[in-house]
Amino acid sequence: MSLILGFFFIFLILAIGDVVSAKTKAFVPSVFVAAALFVAGYWSNFLPLDIVEKTGLGNPLATVAMYVIIVHMGTMMSIRELISEWKTVAIAAAGLAGMIAMLLTVGAAVIGWEAVVIGTPPLSGGIVAAIMMTEAAAAKGLVGLSVLATVIYVMQGFVGYPLTAWCLKFEGKRLLAIYHEGGEELAKLSSSKEQEKMEKKKMIPPMPEKYQTTFTHLAVIGAVAYVSDMLAKYIKLGLTSIDPSYAAYALHPLVICLIVGCIAAELGIIERRPLNKAGSFGFIMATIMAFIMGMLNRSTPEMMMEITGPLAGIIVIGVIGLVVGAAVAGKIFGYQRYMAIALALTALYGFPPNYILTDEAAKALAGNNEEYDFLMGQMLPKMLVGGFITVTITSVILAGVFINML
């Protein structure tokens, strides 16, 4: 398959996912459709296993795209919003606690201790956790189960995507009802006034319009991403100097990108939604999606047959625990049930699917740009923070703990 033909098939599959999602009003998420088609393509040998790498959409471009898109997401949030999401952190943590409790009790009894210990950290979505548990299982001589961690990481999205889409649609409908009714409840939710105040308090005036080009926007994004990356390294070095074991608690560079992007936008260092102004948002997102789909080449029919039982058991039991934990915590902290469950479900896939699923739900429900912006403003910050807590931070910590339990 030539480079250009591979490029065509990658985006044809992603386009089919978008069409199906639009036709079903996001009931069938585009990510789910695309993932299923990619797996079918790999298993039938229609798609080369290295199709993403051959077209140049793999690393290092995908890594750069991740840094860039997270800085962009940071500019869409205010510091006040970021701080106010402490309830989101608590709900995401409660969901993970419910998942772990269910797996270590019911799961261990039904599936077996070793399978549960190997499979639990990757179920929180992190690729690093999956790699850590795969290597730990292989080192213990558990060759068959060593594949389990990778397959759980690859396959868990097939459960997470439709469940999240369903929850977000219910939450979106509730929010739109409030939006149209108005009153005090809308006033509490609306952040437009806060946004106006925030814009007035910028320390650095905006760049003159004539200098705001694709290249200047991308250069500023790159500078913010670089500062974030260096800051993350220094934080990790500082924690390591205190105690090497503390390195596991360092914030991931992408989390720092989100925070620094938010601060930089409030100061006026970077524009709000810079990728949109640069006309580059679509391509950056497409690059990340292609990379995610490329990782599905790890699963094979033989691999799936070998571990179908433990795989299904861990995902089903774990998701039940996740949903129950999030729903209970959501009730305690005043979150609507569907929103609480949706943000906890980000553990099954992380970023960028959490953004894409939120965007799809908002587009399917909104009748105009104002409604779309309102829905995204209410749901996206929670989904982004939930994904970072479950996938980026907690999954690695869980892996470090669970390795010692093998």
Short description:
The protein has 406 residues and is mainly α.
Order of helices and strands: HHHHHHHHHHHHHHHHHHHH
What is the beta-strand fraction?
under 5%
From the alpha-carbon coordinates, what is the Rg to the nearest angstrom? 21 Å
How many helices? The count is 20
Q: How widely separated are the two ends? A: 43 Å
- How would a crystallographer describe the biggest sheet? none
Q: Give the helix proportion (percent range).
A: over 70%
**Strand elements, count:** 0
| Uncertain residue ranges | none
Gross geometry: globular
Structure class: mainly alpha
Assembly type of the chains comes to: single chain
* Overall average residue pLDDT: 83
If you had to describe this structure to a student in words, what would you say it looks like?
With 406 residues, the chain is an all-alpha fold. The protein has 20 helices and no strands. The radius of gyration is 21 Å and the shape is globular. Helix content is 78%, strand content 0%. It starts with a helix and ends with a helix.
Strands, helices and their partners?
Elements: H1 3-23, H2 30-43, H3 51-54, H4 61-75, H5 79-84, H6 86-110, H7 113-123, H8 127-139, H9 143-155, H10 157-181, H11 184-189, H12 192-200, H13 214-242, H14 253-267, H15 274-278, H16 281-294, H17 301-333, H18 337-345, H19 353-365, H20 369-403
